[in-house]
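Input for the complex:
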Amino acid sequence: RKEVEQDPGPFNVPEGATVAFNCTYSNSASQSFFWYRQDCRKEPKLLMSVYSSGNEDGRFTAQLNRASQYISLLIRDSKLSDSATYLCVVINEKLTFGTGTRLTIIP
Amino acid sequence: NAGVTQTPKFQVLKTGQSMTLQCAQDMNHNSMYWYRQDPGMGLRLIYYSASEGTTDKGEVPNGYNVSRLNKREFSLRLESAAPSQTSVYFCASSSNPRPTDTQYFGPGTRLTVL
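Predicted:
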């Protein structure tokens, strides 16, 4: 089993819809989690951290489910500018990137 | 404040040629990293430098060398390029080497080895 797994997508979602995707991790000792955003042919940029209690930043909500070993990212009222690849990052002794989930928002 | 800069943006090499990828950061960060990104695979760490004067191997160091020239600059060298090294290379930096410290990435170098 891979350390970090993401559905590669693509997720094609109409503008204004809500979309959610998950990232599973294999190491139960993993301590910290992040979501990065990567636009086409650009560098990854930190989107948000994932806290045990969950956290929200505007239209974005990140949650952690330790029992089932996954993190999730929910985007409400999606905008065209949300089109990107979303990378999850899982940290135990080292930092491991997922392969990313590609999201396209359709007008 | 440019953040993390990388040169060149694109490069095509023939098998066996050598080249150096340059990276510089102006955020006064202690730690710097080199990653490669290939289709279907997550970013993989090649080498990192926790602080000026130190370098360590990451997950995929074979075929590469690095130099932490000073606090700002961290270069990656391919001594004898191979087609398997065709990839997008990202340099990153962070305040400190803790894995939880936010890493800031450069724009990447797209390398093709023929």
